[in-house]
Specification:
The chain is mainly α. It has helices at 35-50, 61-72, 97-113, 122-139, 146-160, 172-183, 188-198, and strands spanning 88-89, 92-93. Helix 4 (122-139) packs antiparallel against helix 5 (146-160).
Amino acid sequence: MAGSPHNQLEYEASDDPYCYPGTTVLKNVPDIRDAAALEQFEIALTTQRGREPFPSGRLSATHYKAIHRHLFQDVYPWAGRFRTVRIHKGSSTFCYPENIDGEMRTLFAWLRKQRLLQDLTSVEFATAGAHFLAELNAIHPFREGNGRTQLSFLALLATKAGHPLRLRRLDPATFMAAVIESFRASEAALAAVVLDLIGLEN
C-alpha cells in the first residue's frame, strides 16, 4: 500500500521461536536468512498484494486477520495468526499474547457499537479512527506487519464510512511519531494525521 511505513519499529523478543536460531531474522516462506533481503522481499510482496482486492468481510476481528493473511501470505507461514510471544519496543510493552484474543474482541465490539464509524463528520471519524488505531497498536496482535494491516483496515473502514483515505499523502515518519504518541495516551496527533488523509474536500 502506497505510503505505508515499514519496519519502523525494531522488536525485541526473548527466545523468539519466530526467528531462525541465533538470529533476529524471522522465519519466512522463501527461507531468506538475510535481514535486509527479507525486508526487501516483504516490501515487494506485500505491496503487490496490497494492490489486489482485499478479502471481503464484516470489518470484524476475523476480517482483520484475513487482511493480514492476504498481505503477508507469501512472506510468513503464520500470516493471519496472532503472535504467541511477548514483544516490546524500548520500555513500551505490547499486549501479552495470552490477552490478545480478548482485547481484540473488546476492541471490535466497541467498533460495532460505534456502527463502524459511519454517519460521522470528517473530524469525528478522524478522532474515532485514531482511537481505534491507537488501541490496535497497543495490542499489536501480529509478530510482524501490524502497521501495514492497521492502515489497510482503516482504509476499508474509511471508505465504508464515506471518508476515503488518500494514503499517498501519508508521511511515514509523521505517522510513526503520532502512533508512538498515541501509545502514551495522547491521540491528538494521530487524529490529525487521519484527518489529513481524509482531505478537506470531505
